[in-house]
Amino acid sequence: MRELMEETGIKVSPSQVNAIGKLYVKKPRGAFIYHMFQVDLKEMPEVYLSAEHTKYAWADTHDIQALRLIGGGKEALDYYFLKKK
Fold first, then answer.
1. Distance from C-alpha of 78 to C-alpha of 65, rounded to nearest angstrom
2. For a 10 Å CB count at each end of the chain, is N or C smaller?
3. Alpha helices in the chain (DSSP H)
């Protein structure tokens, strides 16, 4: 929750956060551990990016595959959609 607030300005309470699981992804350029959480939002929040980010986008599930993501990002999204079912 703190990281979400620091990097986007989006505030959530502990009761809104649902743990999905942990995902390990190994790539040629490094290994990644994703601690996966999910939050249901009643409305689209205004986003205020921290200095370490340059842009963001809300993407439809159909548009995700075309996005350039961080290492293991596509695997993390696949894991999320698998667990969400």
1. 10
2. C
3. 2-8, 73-84
